[in-house]
Every structure is written in structure tokens, then in C-alpha cells.
Amino acid sequence: DYTCSYSHDSSGPWYQRTPSEYWSFLTVPMFSLFLTLRNHAPWKRKELLITVLISCMGWTCNHFSARAFPDRSDMTSAIGAFAVGFVSNLYGRFFSGNAFVIMITGILFQLPSGLGNGGLITFASENNSSGSSTSYLSGFQTALQLISVSVGLTVGLGISLVLIFPIQSRKRAGGIFSL
């Protein structure tokens, strides 16, 4: 039973009810903070707060674009990655910081958000009969969705990079993608 009907009762006590969507505005910053600390970010630096804010902004863009474009995980992940990349590259350009350090938590946050839009849980719930031909087809559809999310992340980050650094500088004489 993938609907959790045994443990979730809408008329039961508070711990059996499905939490409101407003809880995500509390849990997303906490998860982002702990994910940043898990990535060994020093907790006494100003980049910690900026990293948490940027990843929350990316999740917000991804969440509300998933409502506007249902079943389009490539587009929603591109919008979220664009928002994270744009703000991170602006920070890196104007404050002489490293944009990758600031954006890594936001990008790590984008992949599970993109898969939640009809991703792995849907695959598991539709794949009840093992060995059937539809289970192989749904497995390939899930793999295709993983690829589309990764392409969306790449496109969003690429567009944000081109918008922030449109002209080659002496520091980057070979272009954007050179070292």
C-alpha cells in the first residue's frame, strides 16, 4: 500500500494526519542548513546563511513551477537551477566569492525535488507486478525522467552562467568553459 492508508487517517489524531504544505516552509530551510553542514561548510562564516537562502529560493522556484507545469520535470528543474545559478554567479561576481561553493547545496536540493514530480515513488507504486512488460517500460520511463532532470539542471545553470558572464574577460580569455 503506497498511500499509507494504515498510518494516515484524516480524522485521526494529529500525528496520523498528513501535514500541511506550510510545514515545508519550515522544513526546507532546516534540511538545507543540515545539508550544507553535512557538506562540511564552516558554521561561523557568512556563506552559510547565503547558501541556505539560495537553496531555499531554488526549492521555492522548483516547487511553484512544478504546480504551473505538472509532469514537466525538465522545465521545473531548469527554472530552479537557473534561479540558483543566477544568484550564485551574481554573488561570485560582485563579492569575489566562489559561486560553486554557494550553489552546491541548491543544486543538490534540485534533484530530489525534480524526481518528486511524478518520479521514483510513482514508479514504485505502478510497479506492483514484477516481471511484466509494463514494469520494464516504466523503468525506462523513470530513467528517461532522470535524464530529463539532469538536462534541465544543465540548461538552467548554463543559461544563468551566460547571462552573468556574457563577455569574455582577460581572466577567462578562452571563454566561459575554460579553466
Explain what this protein looks like in three dimensions.
The termini are far apart. Helix 1 (24-38) crosses helix 2 and helix 3 packs parallel to helix 6. It is built from 6 helices and no strands. With 179 residues, the chain is mainly α.
Write the layout of secondary structure elements.
Blueprint: H1 24-38, H2 47-68, H3 73-94, H4 99-116, H5 120-126, H6 133-164
Helix pairs in contact: 1-2, 2-3, 2-4, 3-4, 3-6, 4-6
Task: Please describe the structure with a list of short key phrases separated by commas or semicolons.
179 residues; mainly alpha; 65% helix; 0% strand
Q: Please state the structural category.
A: mainly alpha
Tally of individual helices: 6
Shape: globular
* Arithmetic mean pLDDT: 80
- Biggest sheet details: none
How would you sum up this structure in a few lines?
The protein is mainly alpha-helical and 179 residues long. It is built from 6 helices and no strands.
